[in-house]
Amino acid sequence: MDKEKFYITTAIAYTSKTPHIGNTYEIVLTDAIARHNRFIGKDVYFLTGTDEHGQKIQEIAEEQGITPQEHVDKIAGEIRNIADMLNISYDGFIRTTDEHHVKTVQKIFKKLYDQGDIYKGEYEGWYCTPCESFWTKTQLKEGNCCPDCGRPVQKTKEEAYFFKMSKYQKQLEQYIEDHPDFIQPESRKNEMLNNFIKPGLQDLCVSRTSFTWGIPVDFDPKHVIYVWIDALSNYITALGYSVDEKGELYKKYWPADVHVIGKDILRFHTIYWPIMLMALGEPLPKKIFGHPWMLFGEEKMSKSRGNVIYAQDLVRHFGVDAVRYYMLHEMPFAQDGTITYEVFISRYNSDLANTLGNLVTRTVAMVNKYFDGIVPEPADEGEFDADLKSVAVGAISAIEKKMDQLRVADSLDEIWKVVNRANKYIDETTPWILAKSEDTKQRLGTVLYNLIESIRIIATLLSSYMPETSKKILDEIGADESSYESVKSFGSYKPGSKVGNADVLFARIDTEKKLEELEAEMAANAEPEVEIAPYKDYIEFDEWEKLDIRVGKVLECEPVKKSKKLLRFTLEVGNEKRQILSGISQYHKPEELIGKNVVFIANLKPRKMMGLESCGMILSAEHDGKLTALTTINDIQSGAEVV
RNA sequence: AGCGGGGUAGAGCAGUUGGUAGCUCGCAAGGCUCAUAACCUUGAGGUCGCAGGUUCAAGUCCUGUCCCCGCACCCA
């Protein structure tokens, strides 16, 4: 009988810059799931890769004076190195610049166009020829005039391709209802259904003409295929899928069993992707898992704060498997998790050094001490043996249940139950007392055999999560059996094997010392040179004169209800009052602004936000996530012009 | 009344179909010495956000209410 297949993917990583530890979490999580399924006998294909197109990459490359291709080659290389460093067992690594991918995406686009799912339309906008600018309808002045120069605008000349999402809406809704496990975790399902699908899907713009670093539409080359069709298709093009020829891997592995992705791109994977597949007439993936994020303490990671944690640094300090362990064990299933050095070291010391490492060391040390390093034959079962065995043997089925639900952290707990049980067993059986008399030597041998076999089971089970440690332990105890079958029963370890020297597996870390070291390193890595936003192009004096900038006195200021960012201001401007909304509530408390002078653009076209009208724009200075509103040095009559 | 999730020991979290409230770390006491000052046992510590209700019985169901978070509209 053929092995059951299992196709699992991560999202492809965007190659704009080197990923930090949060970005790395996803691939480690996926790796554990992939390895586990391989372990239990499935035929696994694990795909990861890089997303290498887009405007942002084009811009970054330009800034650095290199070609986009050179840039993505470099970053893709880094990403792959990180994956390799972390022992990621991927079977395929796709890059969206791969030739097969590019060609296939073009064919997919063409096919969808030919069958009418993609149509050429107009980007919702109006074009002002003299100004060479696009405007959306809401930006226009009365009578469809350019807000810049006041001249009439033409309905858009910017053409674009659109995907008819609405056509598949009902079908998608039905699919999601019929497959309650399709979107994980559950809460996300409702989010998608209620926020997007049920209110009605908008047609999706799937091409751009504003940049060139992307896959061209082959029958209309000034258009570049915009991110979703390009990026999402990777899951099938990597398997050799094409429109006319599906390929062996594709036939074997599609549909995907799990797409593991960040919660932020759930929408694209649960709506656009299934619809694309429906349009192509291909089956839908079985499960989409939107994992939570890994945050650094309370703070956002930022280069200038010097608190970015990179996987490489963690690995250098703590080792690959400690990093894998932390990510796999400390992240909650559906809520964002955090990583701090304090917690990391604490988990390292208690779980890895004390509980697991020490169990191996002390057991091996006893085999050396009492049996010259040769694991003895077990004899008759004694007290406590049955319980130890049942815990050890029972672990695998518990783990399989948890892993089926993608509960990786819980699976590790199941392994640690065995570790704890084994530690307790030593206390119960007191080998050091048994060693004192020749009469109890046989019992001693049995006890040590049971411990070694328990450790063998533990190490075998660990292989999906901490492959390097798993192998080290198996070597240390001289085990040659580490199969799935062998952990279902007790006794696969062959007596007579030689154990190692009881080397320390995870050396305890001196918390204070290590923290000092890490802090010093972080301080050294903080970038001292200040990076400011690039300057814009020169403008003419008369362009400057078009701006009407004024001083206003804040009479009232309050948060806009339900809004995360907006503050509603009432300004005194001469004898008038004016309402302006400004998205700065993250940075300023309303009460600290009342009575202050602020500077605002008075002739910016009014616009409604969150149901309120905003007549102008309050000026603020912003740098690196910090922001402060502008004010005047001395008091001055409100309404005063800024010149 | 936008949609959804959550508020449980000092911290981080579990709590399935309602029936004595659990886990890990931390803390305290004891045990042990094979081991990485590790390991084992026991203990202290919780009005399960708040207020009502259903029930013989509610963390678990219902209503109201207060916070926190995610998503959406939203930084002009």
Characterize the structure shown.
The protein is of the alpha/beta class and 643 residues long. Helices cover 42% and strands 17% of the residues. 39% of the residues are buried. It is globular. It binds one RNA strand of 76 nucleotides through α6, α13, α15, β21 and β25.
Q: How helical, in percent, are the residues?
A: 40-55%
Distance between the termini: 82 Å
Query: How many individual helices?
Result: 21
Major beta-sheet overview: 7 strands, parallel
Question: Quick summary of this structure?
Answer:
With 643 residues, the protein is an alpha/beta fold. It is built from 21 helices and 27 strands. Helix 14 (385-404) packs antiparallel against helix 15.
